[in-house]
Every structure is written in C-alpha cells, then in structure tokens.
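Q:
Got a chain?
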Amino acid sequence: MIKFKALMNAIHQSIHSAAQAVEAEGVKHIETFFDAIKHEELDVNDQGIAPESYVTHRPKMVAMAFPSRTDKGVETVMVNVPLITLSPVSSPRIQEVKFKAELDVTTNEDNELMVAFANSNKRGLLTSCDHKSTNTAIEITLKGNEPPEGLQLVIEGYEKALRSQIPG
C-alpha cells in the first residue's frame, strides 16, 4: 500500500513530464524549418551576449517557378519560398488526462489515506492458467492548438515577403 498523496503526486509528475515531451517535439518540428548559424565573432553592438548564445536562424527555402506575363510574353520567375509557409504548424498540448483504477483503500495509524491497486483473478478464455491483473485505464487527449502569437507573426512576415515576390 502507498499513500494516496504519493500516487497523486506520481500521476501529476508523469503528466507534467509527458506535457514537456510533447512541447519539446513541437520545438523540434519548428527547428526543421530553420538552419541555425552560430556566430563566433561578436559585433560591437552585441555587448553582453554570450558567444554560445549568438545564433541566427535562417529559414530553409525552396525555389519555385512562377509564370509571369510580361511585354515579351509569358516568362518564368523564380521565387524563394520559406518552407515554414508551406506546412501547417500547430502546437500540440495535452488537453485532458483520465486515469481510472480500482483501488483498495484504507487508512493508516496516522489517519492518512492508503491505497493499493485492487487485484482480480481472471481466467483467460483460451488458457487454463490463472493470472492476476489490475483494472487500470489511462486516457490522454492531445489537441493541436494555434501556434503561439510570436511564431504566427514570424510566419505571417514570411508570407508577406513571399506575396511580394509572386508575380500577378
């Protein structure tokens, strides 16, 4: 048997770790759209910035040909398109966690709530051996949210630059 508080704390810590892992994957997804360029020399204007933190992120681009009507007829114009403008970007978040378990509940001498997972003996349909199992179910719901406002502004900036390059 364990303290009920300890069980709740373990569940909370697990959910927190899972949320951090989901967020880290979102950051890794964003990083696929940029090349990080480290700068070894600092500019006079960059005082107070540690060299290891001085990194420029350059968007990964793809060149696309667009037809353009000119005085000479239809010509092809090459446009540099940031990859981040071509891919949907969402920020997944854990929206809901449901934890269901059958627990044996009692109190100890200090009147603290103590719990243990209830065991039930079940016989398998196709087997003659008995095995113990606990009735526990965990359900996690992930929801894709809109990107953070800062990222949305970055994407919109690249989209404006892209629109200015496209003929017509």
In short: The chain has a mean pLDDT of 81. The radius of gyration is 28 Å. The first strand starts at residue 2 and ends at 3. The CA atoms of residues 23 and 164 lie 33 Å apart.
